[in-house]
Amino acid sequence: MKVVPRLPGDTSPALPPIAAEALRKAGKDPAKFVLAPGDDGVMAAGIGVAPAGRSLEHRFLFTDRGNALRTVDTFADRGRPVTITRDTHGWWVAINGAAEPGVTDDDEHRQIAAEVTGLGGQDRGMGRMNVTTRFSLK
């Protein structure tokens, strides 16, 4: 997301408190600004959505929550959208990302799987998808 000037007549919701406070510290009136989608997919990553375009989702199962959370931290720190869920089998971690140019989907999955299995995850495969993202700030 990015902060942009509010257009006349714009009734979008107020900025989140943390953004409003940052603007106040910078000497700006938060009421004169709104949030808008950014150009680089940061919003998508922040809510666990794969980036727009051709994308891959790599899935892994963990029996140990600590290992699952370490994996989430590792890939989130690299800017990858990562989600974690739990069911009766254990902790599921999905790592999303745009398909890498010049790298086959299978090769990319093998690279990620090699790292994640070293962190204690069981490889449960990958899925290919074409993603279109649209955000509404209403």
Tags for this model:
2 domains, Alpha-Beta Plaits, 138 residues, 31% strand, 6 strands, elongated, two-stranded antiparallel sheet, single chain, alpha+beta, 4-stranded antiparallel β-sheet
Q: How would you describe this protein?
A:
The chain has helices spanning 17-25, 42-46, 65-76, 105-118, and strands at 2-5, 33-36, 53-62, 82-87, 90-98, 122-131. With 138 residues, it is of the alpha+beta class. It has 2 domains: 2-36, no CATH class; 44-131, Alpha-Beta Plaits, CATH 3.30.70.120. β4 (82-87) and β5 (90-98) form a beta hairpin. It has a 4-stranded antiparallel β-sheet with strand order 4-5-3-6, covered by helices on one side. The chain has a two-stranded antiparallel ribbon with strand order 1-2.
